[in-house]
Specification:
globular, four-stranded antiparallel β-sheet, mainly beta
Length: 121
């Protein structure tokens, strides 16, 4: 079973950038699709981005397309989310997930504990 720990969240002004990381433990990291989800206060958790096991295929929610980039380093068992041109509506707890790719994004099997991202206007 993969265990996931996110880092890199924080407070940033609108228009700024942040890079989230997700460190994975377990020998099966490279065999899973990986993704990012987020949950804003009072809202349901929503899909943000996912990357296939080899890192050659990515998929994004329309709300972040062109601003966020997902990547992974299987040698380091680490997943990344580069977030540029951040907006106040990007404020949420961001969760790393391991699972399977789907047509709508991703079916998560394992979650991290989350990291807070706050974008001020």
């Amino acid at each position: 079973q993969v265990q996931l720990v996110e880092s890199g969240g924080g407070l940033v002004q609108a228009g700024g950038s942040l890079r989230l990381s997700c460190a994975a433990s377990g020998r099966t990291f490279s065999s899973h699709a990986m993704g990012w989800f987020r949950q804003a206060p009072g809202k349901e958790r929503e899909f943000v981005a996912r990357i296939n096991w080899s890192g050659t295929g990515t998929y994004y929610a329309d709300s972040v397309k062109g601003r966020f980039t997902i990547s992974r380093d299987n040698a380091k068992n680490t997943l990344y989310l580069q977030m540029n041109s951040l907006k106040p509506e990007d404020t949420a707890v961001y969760y790393c997930a391991a699972g399977f790719s789907t047509a709508e994004g991703m079916a998560p099997l394992t979650w991290g504990q989350g990291t807070q991202v706050t974008v001020s206007s």
